Amino acid sequence: MGGLGLAGMSFLAWKSMQLNSNKALYASRGETFMSPTVQKRVASTLGYFGFGLGFTGAVAFALRNSMWAMNLHWGICLAG
Question: Considering the entire predicted model, what is its pTM?
Answer without folding.
Answer: 0.51
